Amino acid sequence: MGYDLEDLFRLVQKPGRYTGGELNSIIKNKEEIEVRFAFCFPDLYEVGMSHLGMKLLYGLLNERQDIWCERVFMPDTDMEELMRENSIRLFSLESRDEINTFDFIGFTLQYELSYTAVLNMLELSGLPLRTADRQDNHPLVIGGGPCVCNPEPVAGFFDLFVLGEGEEVILEIIDLYRRHKDKGYKKAAFLHDAAQIEGVYVPSLYEPDYNRDGTIKSVTPLDGAPPKVRKRIIKDLNTSYYPDKFVVPFIDIVHDRAMSEIFRGCIRGCRFCQAGFIYRPVREKSPETINAQSRALCESTGYEEFSLSSLSTGDYSEIERLIPMLLDWAERKQTNISLPSLRIDGFSEELAQKLNVLRRSGLTFAPEAGTQRLRDAINKNISEEEILETARKAFSSGWTAVKLYFMMGLPTETMEDVAGIADLGQKIVDCYYANPVKPKGKGVSVSVSVSCFVPKPFTPFQWEPQDTVEILEQKQKHLRASITTRKITLNRHDASTSFLEGVFARGDRRLCGVIEEAFRRGCKRDAWPEHFNIGTWLSVMADLNIEPPFYANRRRDYDEIFPWDHLDYGINKSFLIDENRKAHQSITTPHCRIACSGCGAAVWKGGVCVDERN
Amino acid sequence: MKEIRIFFRKCGRAKYISHLDLMRTMTRAVRRAGIPVWYTQGFNKHPYITFAAPLSLGFEGLTESMDIKLIQDIGMEDIVADMNSVLPSGIEVYSAAEPVMKAGDIEKAIYKLTFSIRLKDFAAFIEQDSITAEKRTKKGGLRLIELKPFIEQANISENEDGSAVMEVTLPCGSTQTINPLLIVSVCNKFFADKGLQSHIFCDVLRLDLLDGQGNSFK
C-alpha cells in the first residue's frame, strides 16, 4: 500500500518545508488561470525562501490575474526517498499539484553546483531532462540568475534563458506564450519567436563549432536568432515593481527577515567579482522609495527585522539621509535594521551607534587578499591602515571578535601573499592588545575564512588559470603554518568543490553530458558538503574524455572565443582586457563615482552612468 | 499592565507548525495586528508571549492558548478580530480573556485519536490484558509505562469509514506527561509483530486541557 502526500508529511523531518500555507502565500482559483508557473529553487526551502529574487518574481507574476506562480524547492533526502518509493511527483507548495502539468517551470541558477539539483527536480517531476526530448505537451523549462551569463554547461536541459533582470522580460515571454496558445501552441514556433525578445537566449538556436584544440571556433545563430543576445535591465528602480508582501515561513530559514533592495550593481569593480560586472550599471532607489517599501513590508509580515540589501550597502550615496528616516518608525515599532555587506569605515560614528551596528552583525571585513600589492591587483580598494583603524575603533568600544574573509588562488598570488593573510590577522590581534581600555579578562578572537578563487566569465580574470587543487592545498598548508597565535581561527574551503565550480563557470556545451551522467551516478546535491563527491565527477569526466584542467586551469589568449561570447552583458571585452593587464601590473582602477572607466554599461543610459559625479 | 489569555484552534495545514515555529508565528501575528503588547526589556527585546501547554508537531488542537501582557486597554473582541485578520490559515482565535488558572494547574489532556486501521482489526490490540510502552526518562534511561488503565477509560468508537477512534485522557502536567503517540507506537509494534506490514498512522486532535478537578483550562 502506497502512502499519500499527507502521510509523507508525518514521516519526514521538518514537514514545514513542504506543506505550504504560510502567511501571504497566494492561492488562486485554477479555473481562472491561463498560465501556471512553477518557480523552482534548486535547493532546500530554507535556502530558497531566503532569496530576494524569488520573492520579487513571485509577487510580480501573481499580480497578474491570468498567471499563478507557485513555489517549488528541492526536497531533502528523506522526502525524496519517500516520494520516489510512493511515486509522488514533485509538487508546488501552494496547490500541491504536480508541476509537470504547468505551463512554465522556471529555475533560478544562483550557483554552479546546483546544476545536478535542477536535473533531479526535473526527474522528480517526471519530465525528460533534455530540451530536445520535451514535446509540445510538456512545460517550458526556463532559467535565470547569475549563472545564466554562461549557461552553456546546462544549455541542453533548458528551453530558454533570461539574461539579466527578469521583471519585464518574463511578462513579455508569458504574453507571447498566451498568443501562441490561442492559435495552437507549438514549442518550436514559440521558441523561434521568443528568441526575438531582447534578453531571451534560446540555446537550441545556437550551434557551436570547435577548433581542434577544443576551443570554440564559432557559434552560429539559427532560424533568424540574433547573433548576440543582450541582457535586460530595469532602468529606474523607483518606478519598477517591488513586493509589498513576503511569504512568511513557519520554519526558521537562513535569512528570516524583510529585505529592502536599495540599489543594484556595484561601483567598485573588484576584478574577481562577477556580480560587480554583470549587474552594471549601479542604479539606486531614492530614500523615499526605500522607506515606503521597507515600512509596507514590515507591516504586512510582522518581521522584527529588515535588512538593506545590495552588493555593498555602505556605498549607498544617501545612507546618511535614509537611516534617520527608517529609524523614525523602526524604533517605535521595535523593528531592527540590519546592514549586511557594510564597510563600517564609511560610516559616521553617530549612525553606527544608533544602529547598534557592532552589537548585531559583529565586525566583518573582506580584505580578500593579505598584501597591499595583491589587493591592488584585484582592485580591492581598501588599505591596511583602514582595516586596522576600524578594528581599533571596534575594540575600544568593547568588541572582542572580528571576522575576516579572504580568497586564495587569486591571479599573481605568491606564497608571500598567502603568508600576508596570517600577518594581517596578527596585526589585528596586536591592535587588540595595544588598546588600553580593553575589557578585563577577555581575549580577542579573530576568525579568518579563506575561500578558493574561481575565475568567472565577464570579469577581468576570465582569461586566468585557476590554481589546481594541489596548489590550493599547498597554499592552505602554508597559511596554516604561518599562523602562530591561537587567537586566530582558520576556516578553509574545500578546494575540490571550487575546482568543480571552476570547470562549470567557464565550461561549454560538452559538459551537459558530464552533468547528466554524474546525476545518473548519484550526484544530486553537490552544493551540500556532506553529499559532494569529487571522485564521481572525476570518473565521469574521465569516462567521457573530458579533461577538467582544460576548463579550470588553462590560461586563455586574449583573442580566444569564449563559450559565452554571444551573450552581451554590456561589458566590453576590450575593457576587461585592459583591466586584466592592469591587474598584472598591480594598477588600480577608480570606482564608478570617481571616474568612468568606459566599461560599456553606459549604453543603458541609466544609474551612475548618467548621474552627476562628485 | 494586564495579562490576557488568547484561546485559539490550530488545525489543518497549521498542524505542521512546531512549537518553536508557532512562537515565531504568533510573535509576528501580534505585531501585524498592532496589539499593544509588552516587550521584554532585555538584550533582545521581543513581545512577551507564553504558552501553557506546547502541542507536538503534527497534532491539531481545539483549545490552545497563549498569554500576552497588554500595555494599553483594548477590547477582548478587538483582539479576537485583529488577530484573525492576520493569522495564517489553520490558526483561528476564538476568545480572549483574563487568565483564571495558572499554566501549572494543568494536569490532564483529552485527545481524539483517529487510527488508519479499522475498528474490528483494532480490537485485538485494545483487548490485551496489558499494554506497556517504553518511555525515555530525563536521565536517558527507559521506563515501562502501563497504558492499559488509560485505554480502559477511553471512549472507543468507529468512524464513518470504519476506522478506529479513541478519545483518551492522559496525564499532561508537571508531574507526569504521556504523549498519545506512545499508544500509536505500541499499536504499530503490536501489529508489526503479528506480521501486518503497513504502518498505522494516527491523526491526533487535542480536545481539551484539564486541571486536577477535571475543569477545563481557563
Briefly, what is this?
The complex is a heterodimer of chains A (614) and B (218). With 614 residues, chain A is an alpha/beta fold. Chain A is 34% helix and 14% strand.
Characteristics:
heterodimer; A: 614 residues; alpha/beta; Rossmann fold; Transcription Regulator spoIIAA; 3 domains; six-stranded mixed sheet; four-stranded parallel sheet; 19 strands; 34% helix; globular; B: 218 residues; Alpha-Beta Plaits; 2 domains; two-stranded antiparallel ribbon; 5 helices; elongated
Shape of chain A: globular
Taking Cα atoms only, what radius of gyration of chain B do you get, to the nearest Å? 20 Å
- CATH C-level label of the largest domain in chain B: Alpha Beta
Distance between the termini of chain B: 20 Å
**Oligomer type:** heterodimer
Structural write-up:
The complex is a heterodimer of chains A (614) and B (218). Chain A contains 21 helices and 19 strands. Chain A is an alpha/beta fold. Chain A folds into three domains: 5-228, Response regulator (Rossmann fold); 257-356 and 569-614, Transcription Regulator spoIIAA; 362-493, 2-Layer Sandwich (Transcription Regulator spoIIAA). The model of chain B has no long low-confidence stretch (mean pLDDT 91). Chain B contains five helices and ten strands, in the order βαββαββαββαββαβ. With 218 residues, chain B is an alpha+beta fold. Chain B folds into two domains: 2-99, Alpha-Beta Plaits, CATH 3.30.70; 104-211, Alpha-Beta Plaits. The longest helix of chain B is centred in the first third of the chain and has 15 residues, at 19-33. Chain B is 23% helix and 35% strand. Classes of the chains: A alpha/beta (614), B alpha+beta (218).
Q: Helices and strands in order, then pairings?
A:
The complex is a heterodimer of chains A (614) and B (218).
Chain A: H1 5-11, E1 35-41, H2 45-48, H3 52-63, E2 67-73, H4 77-85, E3 104-108, H5 115-124, E4 140-144, E5 160-162, H6 167-182, H7 187-194, E6 200-201, E7 206-210, E8 216-221, E9 229-230, E10 258-261, E11 263-264, H8 275-278, E12 283-284, H9 287-301, E13 305-309, H10 319-330, E14 336-338, H11 349-355, H12 357-361, E15 363-368, H13 372-377, H14 384-396, E16 401-408, H15 415-434, E17 445-452, H16 469-482, E18 488-492, H17 495-505, H18 511-520, H19 534-543, H20 548-552, E19 567-568, H21 573-584
Parallel strand pairs in A: 1-2, 1-3, 3-4, 4-5, 9-19, 10-13, 13-14, 15-16, 16-17, 17-18
Antiparallel strand pairs in A: 5-6, 7-8, 11-12
Helix pairs in contact in A: 5-18, 6-7, 9-10, 14-15, 15-16, 18-19
Chain B: E1 2-10, H1 19-33, E2 49-51, E3 60-70, H2 76-84, E4 91-97, E5 106-118, H3 119-126, E6 132-136, E7 142-146, H4 148-153, E8 155-158, E9 163-171, H5 181-193, E10 202-211
Parallel strand pairs in B: 3-10
Antiparallel strand pairs in B: 1-3, 1-4, 2-3, 5-9, 5-10, 6-7, 8-9
